Amino acid sequence: MHRPHLLSFTIALLMFGCGGESASSSSGADISPAMASSEAFVQQFREALESAEPGDIIDVPAGVHSFKRALTLNTDGVTIRGKGMDKSILSFKGQISGAEGLSVNASDFVIEDLAIEDTIGDALKVNEGENIIIRHIRTEWTNGPDVNNGAYGIYPVQTVNTLIEGSVAIAASDAGIYVGQSKNVIVRNNRAEYNVAGIEVENTIGADVYDNIATNNTGGILVFNMPQIPQRGHSTRVYNNQVSRNNTENFAAPGTAVSGVPKGSGILVNSNDNVEIFNNQLSDNDTANILISSYFSANYAGQKNLAKEFDPYPEYISIYGNTFQGGGEKPGADYLNQIRVALYGPTGAFPDIIWDGIVNPEAGTDGPFICVNNSEAKLLNLDAGNNFEGAQVNMAVHDCEVDKLPAIVLRGALANAS
Questions:
Q1: 31 domain-assigned
Q2: For the chain, what is the domain count?
Q3: Has residue 268 been placed in a domain?
Q4: Residue 308 — very low, low, confident or very high, per pLDDT cuts 50/70/90?
Q5: Which secondary-structure segment (H or E) carries 40?
Q6: Which one of 150, 207, 264, 377 is least enclosed by Cβ atoms within 10 Å?
Q7: Distance (Å, rounded) from C-alpha 93 to C-alpha 67?
Q8: What is the pLDDT of residues 177-186, one digit of tens each?
Q9: CB 399 within 8 A of CB 379
Q10: Is residue 10 part of a domain?
Q11: How far is CA 387 from the centre of its chain?
Q12: Tally of CA atoms within 13 A in the half-sphere of 379 that contains its CB
């Protein structure tokens, strides 16, 4: 049974009379003295999370609310709701303990209209839940790109039936918006900027990533499979996104998977199958607008031992209907730049699509590995398996079709959201 939560009413009274210095969010929204955070709110918010019951709605008033320790929610069926991602701000700038800002281990969870800033570790982690809605959330490290920033902004992992929409992720040292080891996911209408990976779908089965803006990251949108993870991901559609100028220097911690992503990567597929990339606008990504690679050329550190069941080869990749402009002129890895100069001269550029060309030796030449039906777009096979000796463009090899993937449909209580 729904138990009306008294937090909203109590906080309204507290905030009406509280004073303090004026503050502002990183995005420029002024916070008046009357909305300044109070220690009373911080304590009551923590207690509300710890004592929550299914059906509770916990409101976060406008203001910058400062927390020194991580927050945890372990109750199903709870909604956390602020007044807007530039108005209700949970600040962890002075955090002294905890691996995340807010850690959620629950299903039927909704969080919307607030910001989480400057956490030591991940900003918002949702673990092993079903029916998750993350809407109009901003995660940000306000100092800008820095290896000491938390790894993940919005971070659902091992979830089922998940919607991330209308959110903003800035300056994560791994991925701004990450969905890992999950099933049935929609990521739409978000903006990811100045992260190492803007949006990353990893070891996930069934994801639609569309109508997002990924700009000024190291890599814009990543679709990965990693070894030694029980679930092998596949079946992702990446479409109607704007992916531009993802040329920020890689600031990931050494040894992490994304530390090998070259700056200038637009959409990057690694070791994943059944991926559709269509109707995107890609521009000015300095390595290439689309990159496709096997695990063997991904330059991962500390990830040499493959699980026996891991498939390191990208297969059944379909690219069509995208628009390309610029890019490929300043690859973010020395070996790639050497190949560019050797093939196209000092001022030349890679084609819009580059592929390492490494295929499963047991598959022969049957494929299809990568099908390109994209007007005048060209794909460069780098022939990485043969020390790049046979790098070439041969579009006849990629004149093929792959069965289209169905749209992701959210189920249950989220059905109307999709």
A1: no
A2: 1
A3: yes
A4: low
A5: helix 39-50
A6: 377
A7: 8
A8: 999 999 999 9
A9: no
A10: no
A11: 32
A12: 26
